[in-house]
């Protein structure tokens, strides 16, 4: 029977962005709103 | 039962309608592909994080402002934004090349400060002070010629006119002044180097 020297998968773990980056993006999205006034769009970020 | 994934287009629709969870799902679904794509081009974790963040800021702005058209698919559209930001990053780098300090490479090997440091300035000041003391020990006629020639930058012709001696005498006094200075320096083993 063939010996299995390595049990670990050779496939590398997919690269992921930092948790802080994701958290920032989700919070940024929640804070961002667009207000439309007479055909003009205004960007507003709530603190 | 097969796990049916909500299509991207539906998640986008929900997000535009105000469902923030839909964005989290979209990011979670595609983050590895987008992050890996950026990293494959820039090969730096920090820059990849920055570009990834900028990409999604653009995505969020476009979707929230209602400028997104559903002609294309979501992932290729995000990839195109990331690609454009990568190009921008390299363009910026071309205009302003950035070097990072590593163990093998010191930034100070490229950027040097031509101004003398505090140590060499102190040494120069000490040398000048020592030399002034030595000049004070010279006979008056030699001292006079040496000061006029070196410190006042006068020619031997001007020195001879001012002191009322011939040019040859002024030259001789200068010669003896230098010889005497060397003698004193050798005798007392004074080091006058910067």
TrEMBL record, chain B:
<dbReference type="InterPro" id="IPR039425">
    <property type="entry name" value="RNA_pol_sigma-70-like"/>
</dbReference>
<comment type="similarity">
    <text>Belongs to the sigma-70 factor family. ECF subfamily.</text>
</comment>
<dbReference type="GO" id="GO:0003677">
    <property type="term" value="F:DNA binding"/>
</dbReference>
<keyword id="KW-0804">Transcription</keyword>
<dbReference type="Pfam" id="PF08281">
    <property type="entry name" value="Sigma70_r4_2"/>
</dbReference>
<dbReference type="GO" id="GO:0006352">
    <property type="term" value="P:DNA-templated transcription initiation"/>
</dbReference>
<feature type="domain" description="RNA polymerase sigma factor 70 region 4 type 2">
    <location>
        <begin position="129"/>
        <end position="169"/>
    </location>
</feature>
<dbReference type="InterPro" id="IPR013249">
    <property type="entry name" value="RNA_pol_sigma70_r4_t2"/>
</dbReference>
<keyword id="KW-0238">DNA-binding</keyword>
<feature type="domain" description="RNA polymerase sigma-70 region 2">
    <location>
        <begin position="26"/>
        <end position="94"/>
    </location>
</feature>
<dbReference type="GO" id="GO:0016987">
    <property type="term" value="F:sigma factor activity"/>
</dbReference>
<dbReference type="InterPro" id="IPR013325">
    <property type="entry name" value="RNA_pol_sigma_r2"/>
</dbReference>
<keyword id="KW-0805">Transcription regulation</keyword>
<protein>
    <submittedName>
        <fullName>Sigma-70 family RNA polymerase sigma factor</fullName>
    </submittedName>
</protein>
<dbReference type="InterPro" id="IPR036388">
    <property type="entry name" value="WH-like_DNA-bd_sf"/>
</dbReference>
<dbReference type="InterPro" id="IPR013324">
    <property type="entry name" value="RNA_pol_sigma_r3/r4-like"/>
</dbReference>
<dbReference type="Pfam" id="PF04542">
    <property type="entry name" value="Sigma70_r2"/>
</dbReference>
<dbReference type="InterPro" id="IPR014284">
    <property type="entry name" value="RNA_pol_sigma-70_dom"/>
</dbReference>
<dbReference type="InterPro" id="IPR007627">
    <property type="entry name" value="RNA_pol_sigma70_r2"/>
</dbReference>
<keyword id="KW-0731">Sigma factor</keyword>
